[in-house]
Amino acid sequence: MLPEYQLAQIAIMHYEKGMSQQEIAGNLGFSKMTVSRMLQKAKDQNIIKTTISLPFRLREGVGEKLQKKYEIEKAHVVVNDPSTEDSELVGRVWAFYMGITIPEHSILGMGVGNTIGQVVRNLPSTQTDDLHVVQLMGGLSTVSFDNPFTIVQETCRKLNAQGTYFTSFATVENQEVLSSLVYNTPMGRQVFELWKECTMALFGVGTIEHGTLLAPELVRQEEIEELKSKGAIGDILGHSFDENGEFVHTDLEERLVSIPVELLRKIEQRVAVCAGAEKVKALRGALKTGLIQTLVTDEKTAGLLLEADGE
Fold this sequence. Notes:
- By secondary structure, the chain is α/β, with parallel strands linked by helices.
- It is built from 13 helices and ten strands.
- The mean pLDDT is 90.
């Protein structure tokens, strides 16, 4: 029998007939090790081709258009599911990829908000080696799964990782308090050093009207009005930007407890998870900041993004 014929025969016996390698070896008069090697050779010669059915559907072509338009490395565009909220859907998708791509011996920075909370909710439990999780901005005024305290804690539990928390709200009284907190306390210095060594950052995109950060307990009304007057349309980890992707500097920035933009930009892998028609304007501006390398979004949002840009 020709070699490729025998390789195909063994492949069918194993994968279609369900025979073990030991059973095949007995039938054909080979050793089990020989059968194992022949199965591997069948894979190498593309006689055996592996296909995996994902638990969601992607629009690869749409993703490629987003990649080209906004010059990002990867866009995962998932088909909307009427039975699932968009934020939960994209959270599930990145939880799937994150569960198989988390690098060991690394530092993972976690953002804030409902969508990031959905990622963590759906993250499978995984045994990682030497993974450290750090909070990328201060906490919110409410106790919920949107809060970075909870997000970091649950991520550590799911990934068997060590975590470092920032025991401060996302805003403090003024710049003097911010500098003292970040640079003159052991906790602040530890977090700042972890920010500098961070290898992956996961964050959402907020809108000025519906942002997670812009709560009355954390942001003054006059600061919101100042942001709007300067053309701010959204934020990444509290850092506000306009429709051209330019960051807007206001008094709020002077008291914001969050990783600085210049440090965030240096992180090797920067992943934004964002969905929903109400986020399109802000997401478009966020993509223009250059901070997003990988985007996870839904098909409807992606379509509106491309439509807004004349695609």
